[in-house]
Amino acid sequence: MPSHSLNAETNLNLTFPLPYRVLFLVGLGILGWATNLHGLDFSGIDPISAFNLWSEGQKARIASRQMPHGNLVITSTPYMAIYKIFFVYMAFCIASWTIYRSCTKGDDVLVDAFGYIPLVTILVIIIFLVCPMSVPLKYEREKFLNALGRCVLPSSHSPIEFSDVVFADIATSFAKVFGDFWLSALMLLPGNTLLAAPPEEGWQRWILPTIMSFPYLLRFRQCLIEYSSPPNATRRPLYNAIKYATAFPVIFLSAAQKGPSRLENRLHGDGFSIQYWPGTFRLWLIATIINSSYSFWWDVTNDWGLDLLQKGQRQTESVHRRTPPRQLLLPRLQFHSHTSPLGRTSNDSAAPDISTEGQRQSNQATGTGTRPHPWGLRSVLLFPLPVYPLLVFLNLILRMTWSIKLSSHLYSVTDGSAGIFWLEVAEILRRWLWVFLRVEWELIKGAQNGTSKGRANSNGADPQYEMVPTSSEDQILFHA
């Protein structure tokens, strides 16, 4: 490797070592989730209903249909607590990094001497997360731990919640971050250094890819549970499981290319030796192409419901079903409002008339009239039109780079390099954008079927929620 690249890598590890980069990426994920909830709420999509964030008392009241007017309360916005978590978390991490920088002063000799500072920081965060005592943000921490428990140990007898699906999908975008966390733990062990990752020899080189594949295994199992559940009558969950299974060859074929010295070696002009299993590179390349293309197709067609990669126009629901307008009638238990679903006045031209949209979809079903929506999209769009082609383009580019980032042999000498770090940031950004359209399509499907995707009671019953248009000022919930 050229000397200037080594110097840049050393400077990065001196000023912003891998443990702090991991903490930063986790904080970026928290901020992304808060802005997801905030953006959905701002767009008129109720995140509480979308992700089934009701309290246990509210779920019981909804399930029993008990709606006494005296117990109605105005809900608080759920994203404010997540913003609070982000600011407290980042303030603590920045304070720790500032102390670390003031102690090390950019001296590579002092870096390892004060390596206990990031270690203590990580331990304090983990202890605070799992602390059972009534300390600040207890409710939010319990919700996170419960969601984590449901994803790690899902019940084969209970339906998979939509919120758990999104949670596990977000975890797949943090696969490399989980791997970096493992490398950070190794760096902080006595005898190792924060300036470089310890060498992976023998069976130890399989630990990192195993950790990186764990989020895909969780999502793979969720798909199999959905496929085997009695209400399911399609093979879509099975095809979705295959999508996550295509990530395993990418990860493990990459690790196989970091073989021991007895394998074939090739020497580059800069004197750097690459070791690999003969023929594995071609298999890895094929695996990355399959994983990237399949994942991109699934995102556009099934997660977002767009017609771009369909053989023909998506067949609409029969016209006798309740057809949502362009602005979604959200599945909330609320009072009727005289405003449009996005809080606009009734004469706002930006909110299309229900009958007009229904007629357009009827024309599409009968084959008459003009095209009801822009080519490659769908008839119901809740976000501005330019958002969709932009997100499709960004998703295509970042899907290709994501498969490369899962391949540890491409950065085996410079683990945690600046390039890989920015690829991790880009993947978190891609997932942040993905959530908006994923939630939008899930609620549109629920509206077309006349049901809500959220589970209202703990025994798995799925009540039929009434589709009621409300404004953002009238978000009324039932108090336990």
As a percent range, the share of strand residues is under 5%
Based on helices, strands and strand pairing, what is the structural class? mainly alpha
Q: Biggest sheet: strands side by side, in what order?
A: 1-4
Q: What is the oligomeric state here?
A: single chain
In the residues, how many domains can be counted?
Answer: 1
Question: What percent of the residues sit in helical stretches (DSSP H or I)?
Answer: 55-70%
In total, the number of strands is 4
Q: Tell me, briefly, the overall form.
A: globular
Instruction: Calculate Rg over CA atoms.
Output: 25 Å
Helix/strand order, N-terminal first: HHHHEHHHHHHHHHEEHHHHE
Keywords: Membrane, Transmembrane, Transmembrane helix
Subcellular location: Membrane
Protein name: EXS domain-containing protein
Membrane topology: Multi-pass membrane protein
What's the helix and strand layout?
Elements (H helix, E strand, L loop, with lengths): L2 H13 L2 H25 L4 H4 L5 H8 L8 E3 L4 H26 L3 H6 L2 H15 L7 H15 L9 H12 L1 H13 L19 H22 L7 H10 L1 H10 L7 E4 L5 E4 L3 H24 L50 H13 L20 H19 L12 H32 L26 E3 L2
Antiparallel strand pairs: 1-4, 2-3
Helix pairs in contact: 2-5, 2-10, 2-17, 5-7, 8-9, 9-11, 9-17, 10-11, 11-12, 11-13, 13-14, 14-16, 16-17
Explain this structure to me?
Residues 337-371 are annotated as: Disordered. InterPro entries: EXS_C. Residues 199-474 form the EXS domain. This is EXS domain-containing protein. It is found in: Membrane. The protein has 480 residues and is mainly alpha-helical. It has one domain (2-63, 74-307, 377-458). Helices cover 56% and strands 3% of the residues. It is built from 17 helices and four strands. The strands form two sheets. It has a two-stranded antiparallel sheet with strand order 1-4. β2 (264-267) and β3 form a beta hairpin. It is globular and about 65 Å long. Mean pLDDT is 74; it is low at 66-75, 260-274, 315-371, 412-416 and 452-480.
